[in-house]
């Protein structure tokens, strides 16, 4: 459950995240491979928030990737 009026959910088909969004150590926001990253760089948080808000979209945008694959639809 999500309780918020300030969010965007892209499901399985969101925007391409800029490759230059990285923390102070150069770790990109989008991790490739096994494992996880935890970010605590406040500048990165601000940059990411600025970028996502610049897209001008809020709320539910699309279904999870698996739903679209299983049901064969492009929008829910």
From TrEMBL:
Q: Which domain of life is it from?
A: Bacteria
- The residues covered by the Nucleotide modification associated domain are 2-69
Quote any Pfam family the record assigns. Nmad2
Full protein name: Nucleotide modification associated domain-containing protein
Q: Which organism is it from?
A: Kitasatospora cinereorecta
Which lineage is the organism of this entry classified under, starting from the top rank?
Bacteria, Bacillati, Actinomycetota, Actinomycetes, Kitasatosporales
């Amino acid at each position: 459950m999500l309780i918020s009026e300030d969010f965007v959910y892209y499901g399985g088909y969101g925007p391409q995240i800029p490759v230059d969004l990285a923390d102070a150590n150069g770790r990109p926001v989008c991790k490739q491979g096994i494992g996880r990253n935890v970010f605590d760089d406040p500048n990165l948080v601000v940059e990411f928030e600025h970028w996502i808000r610049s897209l001008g979209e809020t709320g539910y945008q699309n279904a999870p990737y698996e739903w679209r694959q299983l049901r064969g639809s492009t929008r829910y």
